[in-house]
Amino acid sequence: MREWNRSVAFITGGGQGIGLGIARALAKRGVRLALADVDEAALGRSTEELSSVTEVEAFRLDVRDRDAFASVADQAEVKLGPVGLLFNNAGIAPTSPLPELSYERWDLALGVNVGGVVNGLQTFLPRMIERGKGGYIVNTASGAGLVAGSNLLYTTGKYAVVGLSESLQQAAGKYGIDVSVLCPAHVDTGILAHTESLAGDRSMFPQGEQRRREEEAFKAGVSIDAVGEMVIAGMEARAMWIYTDGFLRPYLSMRMEALLEAMPEATGQEVS
């Protein structure tokens, strides 16, 4: 059983959605929280709620800003102590028709969904390694990081986070640092409304009937509090992949069957 009480967690996207669900689950276990979010109003609400349960410090942070990330990390550790639990959770869900793709749209989507994870790792990993006391890193990807959808902006970033996490688990183990990747399906987070303002471009988000269908699908998904408890359970089990439900099972099966079917028969030669 992992010792949670008085440990320190840094959570990006911690003011709302899955980040808030994780924060609530950790707070109940006595973990001190550093919440980072680009939405100051959400940060204020989550801090007010969780301060009655545990120690909380809140920081406005755009995860694409490396200098700000380092500054916020320094402040968090001065106020709360060394961060041993890192949750690279901040993310957005933009989309774009192929004819409307642009460098600016790629930069936004990958800057937050991949760059934000890289910045979190590069900020905190050296500190964890230098202290020699291990740690735990949970990166939030998506089911779209395991089974490709038609949304290039989102799928590309989430596949990157899954691969990064799988590789990191192999590399970080010798330092006593555990790694999991969260691959949620539909979760009731309000992600479309939360991230539309960051993009400043309504055409990067579904509108009309498509928007209504997608929002209904998210609302019908599991709650953020349920996901928070799933993350804790996954960490206790040191699970590589943490899922929120069985939605992906048939699609993963089809993908794996197709991958194996396309592979030539083994020749007996070693692969270098």
Automatic annotation (TrEMBL):
Statement: the UniProt record of this protein carries the keyword NAD: no
EC class name: oxidoreductase
Source superkingdom: Bacteria
Parts of the chain that traverse the membrane: none
Oxidoreductase as UniProt keyword: yes
GO MF, one example: oxidoreductase activity
Record key words, sorted: Oxidoreductase
Pfam families: adh_short (PF00106)
Record domain Ketoreductase: where: 7-194
Family designation: Belongs to the short-chain dehydrogenases/reductases (SDR) family.
Protein name: SDR family oxidoreductase
The organism of origin for this protein: Amycolatopsis pigmentata
